[in-house]
Amino acid sequence: MNLPYFIARRLIKGRRESTSFSQPINVIAIIGIATGLAVMIVAVAILTGFKEQIREKIIGFGSNIQIVNMDSNLSFETAPIHQGQEFIPAIRSIPGIKHIQVFATKAGIIKTDEDIQGVVLKGVGSDFDWSYFSSNMTDGTVFTVTDTSRTDKVIISKKISDLLRLRTGDSFAMHFVQDPPRMRKFTISGIYETSLEEFDKIYVFCDIGHIKRLNGWEDDQISGFEVFIDDFDRMDEMKVRVQNAIGYQLAKDEDKVQVISIGEKYPQIFDWLNFQDINVIIIIILMLIVAGFNMVSNLLILILEKTNMIGVLKALGSQDITIRRVFLYQAAYLISKGLFWGNIIGIGLTLIQLKTGLITLDPSSYYIKTVPVNLQLSHILLLNAGSMAAILIMLLVPSKLISRISPVKAIRYD
Fold first, then answer.
1. Which of 97, 263, 370, 398 could pair with 357 in a Cys bridge, judged by C-beta atoms 3.0 to 4.6 Å apart?
2. Cβ–Cβ < 8 Å for 35, 286
3. Are strands 224-229 and 97-111 parallel, antiparallel or unpaired?
4. Is the peptide bond before 398 cis (omega within 30 degrees of 0)?
5. Sign of torsion over alpha carbons 102, 104, 105, 110
6. What DSSP letter does each residue of 110-163 carry, written as one string?
7. How many whole angstroms separate alpha carbon 322 and alpha carbon 314?
8. How many C-beta atoms lie closer than 10 Å to residue 225's C-beta?
9. Residue 126 in contact with residue 145, Cβ under 8 Å?
10. What is the pLDDT of residue 62?
11. Can you give the pLDDT at residue 413?
């Protein structure tokens, strides 16, 4: 029979049925733990949701990994490579590779009768995955690219649409500064909006054939390949595997290529996202400290309230560790009660935001319109287990006070 658990259960049951001066302290401790856990759940859900949505937006524009010419830099005017690379089948066979598509980019200027705007024309092929942009269309539809004919249709962002006062079905001229200068006329097939203004204000998507012709490239020349993977957290590993599949190009007629991850291409954005982890860690530590000190004060009051019982148990031969376990069981019960209500409050708040989008954000500052949440069972279980363990560890030190209580003085204590 587990004597400490039996005594603790009787004390808990008796405390429910009677009024003691520790009852309000217990309620305060439960409220503190519930509030702390609810804040931690909301903070982690918002952070992971925010990072996930921003990553999806950036990857939608540029994929997880790009394979480009070694001579290419951060400029949108790229050196070409040939499309029929021997290493592409090897990359497709790598577990975790989801999709590979070709692309080409070229800087240009959109000129209307009243306005002018510098943009980046991104050419896509028949293998382009439109799922991301299809889900973000506000008007019109995406266009279809075929290998047999070239289409003049494009999609532009709502940001560019508002700046230049262009609508679906409108045509516009795009000028390219090169020798000799060139111009192309495009028709708007649809308008998308991702709220990632840094990208929305510059990208226009067209048939890759236009960029090939503007640059004077051969039919099988492109800016590079975009590689999508299943798991973002494995991006560094997948980049190395892609590099190994490519190997070393030593022959004179081979294209010298380099592999760039999305994190390397936009380090400022991903460094900013990673910096948000520090904020959540600070919140979790603060909440655990507050909840822990609440329980420490509560445990001391429980010990003070049962000093007479402690003396009796010691007089009957109970060891200090046995009596300590009685109070730790009571503390675990109160912590569990606080965690239960904390889960109800925290999960409830995140579900409300998930379903209603009640709290909004400024897209120009945060890249999204509403506060995102990512509610995962693993995060909730870890927060619960970690909170329980951390608070109980904090209670080990004050529980040693029991060993300093004298049985004779405790029995006479009133």
1. 370
2. no
3. antiparallel
4. no
5. negative
6. EE-SS-EEEEEEEEE-TT---HHHHTTEEEE------SSS---EEEEEHHHHHH
7. 10
8. 24
9. yes
10. 87
11. 55
b/e per residue, 318-340, with b = 16+ CB within 10 A? bebeebbbbbbbbbbbbbebbbe
Element containing residue 309 per DSSP (H, E): helix 307-315
Find the DSSP H helices in 357-402: 363-366, 377-399
When computed from its CA atoms, the radius of gyration of the chain, rounded to whole angstroms, is 32
Paired tokens of 203: 């990208």
Cα separation, 300 vs 206, whole angstroms = 70
Domain boundaries, the chain: 3-57+269-411, 71-255
* CB 133, CB 189: distance < 8 Å: no
Helix/strand/coil for 220: coil
pTM score above 0.90 = no
Could you report the per-residue pLDDT of 34-59, keeping only the tens digit for each?
Answer: 998 999 999 999 988 888 888 888 99
Q: Other C-beta atoms within 10 Å of 343: how many?
A: 17
